[in-house]
Please model this.
Amino acid sequence: MAAQSWTGTALVTGASSGIGLAIAQRLLAGGWRVIGVSRRPPPVDDAAFTHVPLDLADAAERERLPMHFDDLGAIVHAAGLLRPAPLGEPDPAGAAEMWRLHVEAAGWLVDRLAGSLSDGGRIVLVGSRLASGSPRRAQYAATKAAMVGLARSWAGELLPRKITVNVVAPGATRTPMLLDPSRGGETPRTPPMGRFIEPAEVAAAVAFLLAPHAAMITGQQIVICGGASL
Model:
């Protein structure tokens, strides 16, 4: 069965690995044309896929992104990183990097491309279940909480154009970031359901929000946590 029936062009950030790659692959399987934005080229061999190599955390590099894409139906901001920092051990550089990528880049993308997004189009931000707070991750949580504020604000502004804006907020997901040494050597906690979330499961939630039958869902945060939030 195809992932979904609505086709068009979707711009997906963080498309080189993890959740972003899974989203790109899911949308390609559903008939979308995908513009993948990432620093490294993704392992995707599909005529409907175009890679745009740039670092969204770099304001100067961002300017290389075109201001218009034909038939743009969706913007999915999945690029992300985690820099833990407990109280008493702040990481200003890490906090600034996360803010630039999670919040500034999201705002820049939507400001730049909302005008060319089709009426009835979709915007999805990949947040985190930790947006509500987590020990040793206050700086990360703050950026992910800000994404929810952005999404709800944009959802209200874009109502006249019937463009929906939502956040998909996964918990511990089996991605390269899960075992990133920059996590500070902390062992990821397995969700109560007994395993880590798979990137394909997050991609399925994103695909649902991009499909026609999700047209009345906007300004929401969908948490995928395997019971960790209970």
About this structure: The first strand starts at residue 9 and ends at 13. Residues 1-5 have pLDDT under 50 and may be disordered. DSSP finds five helices and seven strands in the chain. The CA atoms of residues 84 and 137 lie 5 Å apart.
